[in-house]
Amino acid sequence: MLEDDIQELLAHGWWVSVSPVMSNGNWSFTCGIYKRFASSGNWTTETCKTFRKPQQCYDWAHNYLERNIEWKKKQKN
């Protein structure tokens, strides 16, 4: 992830974490999407999903965040 991407996520109060996990003897990857509350500054898990490959995590997170950030922009207008 590029520094500009990281700063954009943080500016909108989002973060993505991908972790390897063992499930039934096979490795998979869990992607957590976190949202920061503006009022308290606390982070909470917005959603998570598990995939067989890490790239699938990042693709899913990108699509999820793109929809949510654009939706919030439209709400403000």
Task: Describe the model.
The structure is a single chain. The protein is of the alpha+beta class and 77 residues long. The chain has 2 helices and 3 strands. The chain has helices at residues 3-11, 54-76, and strands spanning 14-23, 26-36, 43-51. The chain has a 3-stranded antiparallel β-sheet. Strand 2 and strand 3 form a beta hairpin. The longest helix has 23 residues, at 54-76. The chain is elongated. The chain starts with a helix and ends with a helix.
What order do the helices and strands come in, and which of them pair?
Elements: H1 3-11, E1 14-23, E2 26-36, E3 43-51, H2 54-76
Antiparallel strand pairs: 1-2, 2-3
Q: What proportion strand?
A: 35-45%
Largest sheet: 3 strands, antiparallel
Order of helices and strands: HEEEH
For the residues shown, what is the average pLDDT?
89
Overall shape: elongated
Q: Counting H and I runs of at least 4 residues, what is the number of helices?
A: 2
Total strand segments: 3
What is Rg? Answer: 14 Å
Helix content: 40-55%
Decide which structural class fits the backbone. Answer: alpha+beta
Low-confidence stretches: none
Q: Identify the strand order in the major beta sheet.
A: 1-2-3
Distance between the termini: 29 Å
